[in-house]
Write a structure and sequence with these properties.
- The protein is globular.
- The protein has a 7-stranded antiparallel sheet with strand order 8-7-6-5-4-3-9.
- A hairpin with a 2-residue loop joins strand 3 (about 110-115) and strand 4.
- It is built from 16 helices and 17 strands.
- The chain has helices at about 20-45, 50-80, 85-100, 160-165, 180-210, 220-250, 250-270, 300-320, 320-345, 350-370, 380-385, 405-425, 430-455, 465-495, 500-525, 535-570; strands at about 10, 15, 110-115, 115-125, 135, 145-150, 155, 170, 175-180, 290-295, 295-300, 385-390, 390, 395, 465, 530, 530-535.
- The protein is α+β, with helices and mostly antiparallel strands.
């Protein structure tokens, strides 16, 4: 039972001053992360002219690597560096990565050779919408708007005289090729790898510092984490709007650059206000860091050099995302057998049952996040290309809609928290397994709602924007049923001697979920030319097909989860 234990030290609004440092550090870190994430998939398809399929799997591998590398960063901090040094190093890597994203070059070019001359097929803006047109640019710089025939087999030139082309060009007779600036493409890969490594060192460890601010039994602990969690969502909310708007309306480098500025502000906050942490999160054994491990390299330097290895590995897998899937799946299977094997060989009775419950929750998150994480990939592209985003006379850039998730959390998290308390008083509070099942059901339901909107607008019409609000709202309600209770359940169910390994498995399967999200998003891929759709009807039909199928699969899984929830609850031994 919690008691009102208040540790010594200066406070701010009743909480340790260190919470202020961590709130703003994490807020700016999430600002940088979500600001970049909102633009990434559109940037890959329009600036580097990657196919939807390639962009989606790169995005999935990137999201997966972020989670997997958190295991390494957390382990190094726990054993050697301490959370403060790990967070500082991670923040530096993040600054480098985000500013690297601002070096965009001129982008890739899709060209068509006609009568010995190269014509570029491109867009006269970023994103999609009424102010962005597909154009063909002649060798002398003159351009004309283009469109595609109903069967998408021909390019129709609006002003053929201006560019010296016929009014209709058969695509089969005039194939295109893509010319890429290798230097800037490699900068992109390196920047993503730096961000992956930076998040790996920072993300888990900054949460550890929050916990260290409060003593055992401190009644302010839950409140402190709630405040910290709001900082995460505030950063996400502001970034999706500010970076998304700048990147689409003014230039990729401005959106990515603003994300980088946000991370610099986070680093400055963390370094300058470190005295407010009052010595928390220092290395477990400072003398150990000075020990030599190889020539002049001591333990501390070795921990930082591991970061270089993470960067190299991450860069390789971002460049070869399919290869990462071949590594991640065996890791996931191996971890499952390791956890189950430990439960059977090292535990018995109630401890074994609780371990089984922990394993269940680790696995049960996969279908939810695989659908939820479409937000940054396939759903982002769909919103950009196939949604009427005009609101009050303003065509809202697609990445801005990613702020809806954080906005809905602000609005509904307090209501959901109150609901659980009210239901508990009436002994009607759903068990954690039931909440998980409902969360997965809502992930599927959200896509069914969006599909209904797509079907209601015809084969080529733009989907009404309020269906985007609806799917984000439904998915956020699902997140509030899965995310807050998931980690808590795992830490309560796993035996103390393997809680670290079990938490590592949580992050591993979170990474697997993100990669699976990329695989799902890849199946929605549509043909593009110059970074824009060639056949709207086919693209829309593809989205309807994929989203309907994954929705029904998720709902089916949710039903099974609901049916077995009494067994999981029994395994939890009344520690729900």
């Amino acid at each position: 039972m919690s008691t009102d234990v208040t540790p010594a030290g200066k406070t701010f609004m009743g909480h340790p001053r260190g919470l202020v440092v961590l709130f703003f550090t994490e807020m700016w870190e999430r600002f940088s992360y979500y600001g970049m994430r909102g633009l990434l998939i559109i940037y890959l398809t329009q600036h580097f002219l990657f196919s939807d399929e390639k962009s989606s799997i790169i995005y999935g591998a990137y999201g997966a690597l972020v989670y997997v590398m958190t295991i390494i960063g957390g382990t190094l901090a726990d054993r050697y560096l301490g959370a403060r040094k790990a967070v500082t190093f991670g923040a530096i890597l993040l600054c480098l990565g985000h500013f690297g994203m601002a070096f965009e070059g001129n982008g890739s070019k899709e060209v068509m050779n006609i009568n010995g001359q190269e014509y570029q097929l491109t867009l006269d803006g970023r994103g999609s919408g009424k102010d962005v047109n597909q154009i063909v640019v002649a060798p002398d710089g003159q351009s004309s708007i283009i469109s595609f025939s109903e069967d998408s087999k021909s390019i129709l030139v609006e002003n053929p005289a201006a560019v010296g082309l016929p009014a209709s060009i058969n695509r089969a007779d005039n194939p295109t090729k893509i010319i890429t600036e290798k230097k800037y493409l490699n900068i992109l890969y390196l920047s993503l790898a730096l961000i992956i490594a930076g998040v790996g060192y920072l993300k888990a460890n900054i949460s550890t510092i929050v916990g260290s601010l409060y003593g055992v039994g401190d009644a302010r602990r839950d409140s402190g984490f709630t405040i910290f969690y709001m900082g995460i969502n505030l950063g996400s909310f502001l970034a999706s709007i500010a970076c998304g708007y700048l990147g689409i309306k003014y230039g990729w480098k401005y959106g990515f650059g603003l994300a980088g500025i946000g991370m610099v502000l986070g680093l400055i906050t963390f370094i300058t206000l470190q005295p407010w942490l009052e010595g928390k999160a220092e290395p477990p054994n400072p003398e150990k860091l000075k020990e030599k491990v190889l020539g002049p390299i001591n333990v501390e330097l070795a921990c930082y050099l591991v970061g270089l290895i993470i960067i190299a590995v991450a860069m390789f897998f971002v460049m070869n995302p399919d290869g990462f899937g071949k590594v991640l799946l065996p890791l996931g299977i191996g971890m499952f057998f390791l956890l189950v094997g430990y439960a059977f060989t090292k535990l018995q009775g109630k401890e074994r049952q609780k371990m089984f419950a922990a394993i269940y929750f680790v696995l049960a998150q996969i279908p939810f996040w695989a659908l939820f994480e479409q937000a940054g990939s396939s759903l982002n592209l769909f919103t950009d290309r196939l949604v009427d985003r005009t609101m009050m006379g303003w065509e809202v850039p697609a990445p801005v809609f990613q702020s809806l998730n954080a906005g809905f959390i602000f609005l509904f998290a307090p209501l959901i928290a109150w609901l659980w308390i009210a239901l508990a008083k009436r002994k009607m509070n759903p068990s954690t397994p039931v909440k998980f099942a409902i969360g997965v059901f809502l992930a599927g339901l959200g896509f069914l709602a969006l599909v209904a909107g797509m079907k209601g607008s015809g084969s080529t019409g733009l989907t009404a924007v309020y269906f985007i609000f609806l799917i984000y709202w439904i998915h956020t309600m699902g997140e509030l049923l899965v995310s807050p209770v998931g980690l808590s359940a795992v830490t309560k169910m796993a035996p103390a001697q393997v809680v670290g390994m079990t938490m590592g498995s949580w992050f591993l399967y979170s990474g697997l979920s993100n990669y699976l999200a990329g695989v799902i998003a890849r199946t929605t891929g549509a043909e593009t030319l110059g970074g824009q759709l060639t056949d709207v009807a086919a693209a829309k039909a593809g989205y309807i097909d994929v989203y309907t199928n994954v929705a029904y699969v998720a709902i089916g899984i949710a039903v099974v989860m609901l049916l077995i929830s009494p067994i999981i609850k029994k395994w939890m031994n009344n520690e729900d």
